[in-house]
Amino acid sequence: MTHQDLVEVAYKWVLKNTSCGVAFKELVTCNIETPDVIGFGHNGHSILIECKMSRSDFFADKKKPFRIYPDLGMGTQRFYCCPTELIKMSDLPTNWGLIWVNDFLKAKCVYKPYKGNCGERKGFNKSIRAEHSLMYSALRRLGNRIEEIYEKTEGG
Length: 156
What we know:
By secondary structure, the protein is of the alpha/beta class. 33% of the residues lie in helices and 21% in strands. The chain has one domain. It has helices at residues 3-17, 55-61, 65-68, 128-143, 146-155; strands at residues 22-25, 37-40, 46-51, 77-83, 96-101, 107-111. The longest helix has 16 residues, at 128-143.
């Protein structure tokens, strides 16, 4: 299993198992944070997933500015994704969820600290500016290809 395998599994998980209608994988922008996966739903809801292949990488993640000051980070809800049992629930920072991926690349959410659905989504205060910057970057890239997209829909 590779980091890229985890990212692919997490990407599919966020689209299939949450209310996020759109998601991005490792989208590099001018933000200080580059999420492995971030999904967006309605009413400003977002889910961030950080994929970790080693415990040392997991513990290094805690030293990043947007982890020390969670309001600087992205994601209303935040999860770590790792090979099964690499990260334990007792290792998790407050309010983080945990997704384990087995050797067959099947994801299982083993801890979700968030309750309720649309109206009751509790989680983190987040950086709206960072999320808007990421979405702007994604839309700008899409905008550069808009004629190609229109041609495919008109011709298909």
